[in-house]
Structures are given as C-alpha cells and as structure tokens.
Amino acid sequence: MTQKIAVAVIHGIGKQDPAFAANISKALITSCGDDCGADIVIEPIYWAKVMQDAEDELQQRLQQGGKMNFPRLREFAIDFVADALAYQPAPDDRSSYDGIHRVFAQAIHQLAEKTDPTAPLCIIAHSLGTVISSNYIYDLQVEPYRSIISPIVKEAMADTPIERGETLTLFYTLGSPIALWSLRYHDFGKPIQIPAPQLAHYYPELKGEWVNFYDKDDVVGYPIKLLNARYRAIVTEDRAINVGHFPANITPASHMGYWTDREVIGPIAASLKRVWQTING
Question: Could you tell me the domains of the chain?
C-alpha cells in the first residue's frame, strides 16, 4: 500500500461556492497522472460560511440609504476589507478568527482520517486564505510553548502529527496579501517554518518548499521574500506569473485567475509527484 498525500485548499475573498476547489482538485489529480493521482487526497477549507451572514446583513443595511456609485467595487471592498477586518481577533471578540480556524481544523481532521495521521501535508491558499493559513500554522507552531489556540478550535482536532502541523511539507500562496499584513509587526514580522521542524522525524528524505505565486497586475498579491532576512530564508521562491484570460489577465481582475492556471497547477503537481515518489520509492 502506498502512502497518500494530504492536500488542503483554502479560498480567499469574494462570495465562494462550497465547491470552489472542484476545478483545481481535478486539474491537480489529472496532472499527477496514473502513477500517483489516486494517492492525492484533497480537502477544501470553505470558511466563507463563517462570515457570509454578517456580510449580507451589512450590505442590506447599507443599501437602505439608496443606491451608491461603483456598486461592484463596493462589493469587492466589503468582501475583502470587511473579511480582513472581521477576521482579526479583537481583545474582547475573536469569534470570527476562532470560527474560521475551527473550519480549518475540521478540514485537516478529515484529511487525517482519509489519508494517514502522518501523511505529508500540502496547503494551497489563495488571497486572504494565505493569511489565514499562515496564522493557523503559526498558532500550531507556537502552541507547544505558549497556549494560544482557542478551546473551540481544539475541540475540532485530534492529537495526530498532521493535525499538529508536524508533517507540513509544501505551502503554496496564490495572490497573497501577507506583505500587507506584515505592516502589523516590527520589521514586517516573521514567517512560519516551512517545512515543519518535525517533518524530518517522519520523512527525513523529504524537502519542503514555500512558493509564492503572484501576478504583477494583481493589486492584492505581492512578493514575500523581500520583507526581511527571515522571509528570505524560509520562502523558497516568489514566482511572478501571468494568470487568467485576456483581458482580465492584464488588470487587477487577475486576482481571481490563479485556481486553474497552468503556471500554478503544473509546478504544484510536479512537487506533489516528487513527494509521492520520494516516500513511496
């Protein structure tokens, strides 16, 4: 029996369909081919449901004052800015932060049950989902030294290596605003550890990577390695690509074009195949 690889896919801004990961899942499995495609187990992290009711109510209240100019741009602002602001924990309210992280924990628990408690973990994250993923993994990596994970998140977790983040091998950020979030921290903060420090205990032969894909026309996605020496040491590569179809691919609308672009799918599938071949001989 071959070792399966666990892949978590997390969305970013905008109104999302629960089946948002269907296209990228199909593309990755097809690209991995007959040799290892069946061993790539993909689980979506659909966190939009945590925020959607509040955002819908906000839009309804704001519309009571009459129509406003640039409705599509305003919808984008609510989707992105409101999501981002609401996600950040406040001193007396971290319900959105914990609610989203609970969804994350539930997805990784599903992967543990569908693959193996020690399966190598790959995370593919888009937009605000890259910040959520970074925060979630950061909390896991800090937790052994300082308890910071909420009880409602811990309730969704089992005590397995993959759920403790110890088998995290691959991290792919697509159109990431992590650079913007770094303004909250001294010297632009510090990155999570990729691969997880404990990975060598389970798979000493594996090499991890963090590749950050960004389109120069995407005003939400930025390079990450440039932030400071710590990021330069951890992030494998900032890869500038051109995503989407014309004319969206030459506008900020390129932000929504990463999911099925071959410049994204191809390299990720190649790395999944490399990991599978390494651990399965």
Answer: 5-280 (3.40.50.1820)
